[in-house]
Write a structure and sequence with these properties.
With 188 residues, this protein is α/β, with parallel strands linked by helices. The protein contains 7 helices and 9 strands. β5 and β6 form a beta hairpin. The longest helix is centred in the C-terminal third of the chain and has 15 residues. The relative contact order is 0.23.
Length: 188
């Protein structure tokens, strides 16, 4: 892999996919995909860094012009991945990293978008439960809902090119770096 490619990472909440992506984007050869959305920015979010915040009208213009590689409506807001930043990164020989939910990843795959599709999985259900509880951010009913969704998402893991089991974060990061072709030293 490596130069001029796209890597798509998804997996259930608590699998460690965001931690893996945070490590990958420290490499200057990696460009992280910033999604577009019509939802209002939350406190501290920066346009162009956290999301591209667009009006519904502007978002729909992008849809009509075919400027998204994928888009969906979630809880009344529109979310999508713009094609131009991906094309620019790949043309520059970079790895374009897209962290996306399972539904979005499978949509990309069905559209024939070329990428290395990586599913990050927890080692087991109990570890996932411990991670979600350990965050201390969700009520018990939310954790149960996330666990149920995780089981559904894991049923789709066979549709990915690679399944990385995150029992140890450093080992999982190493495996993703290898798959993305980023395990070799950077050329100077």
């Amino acid at each position: 892999m490596a130069a001029g490619c796209m890597v798509v990472i998804s997996g259930p909440s608590g699998s460690g996919k965001s931690s893996i992506c945070r490590r990958l984007i420290q490499d200057p050869r990696v460009v992280f995909s910033v999604s577009a959305t019509t939802r209002a920015p939350r406190a501290g979010e920066v346009d162009g860094v956290d999301y591209h915040f667009l009006s519904k009208e502007r978002f729909r213009e992008h849809i009509e012009k075919g400027e998204f590689i994928e888009h969906a409506e979630v809880h009344g807001n529109l979310y999508g991945t713009l094609r131009q930043p991906m094309d620019d990164a790949i043309a520059a020989g970079k790895v374009y990293l897209l962290e996306i939910d399972v539904q979005g990843a499978l949509q990309l795959r069905e559209l024939g978008i070329e990428a290395e599709y990586i599913f990050v999985a927890p080692p087991n259900h109990e570890t996932l439960r411990e991670r979600l509880v350990g965050r201390g951010t969700d009520a018990p009913e939310v954790i149960e809902r996330r666990l149920k969704k995780a089981l559904d998402e894991m049923e789709e893991s066979h549709r990915y090119d690679h399944v990385v089991v995150n029992a140890n974060l450093e080992a999982a990061i190493g495996e993703v770096l290898r798959i993305a072709g980023l395990d070799a030293p950077q050329e100077v």
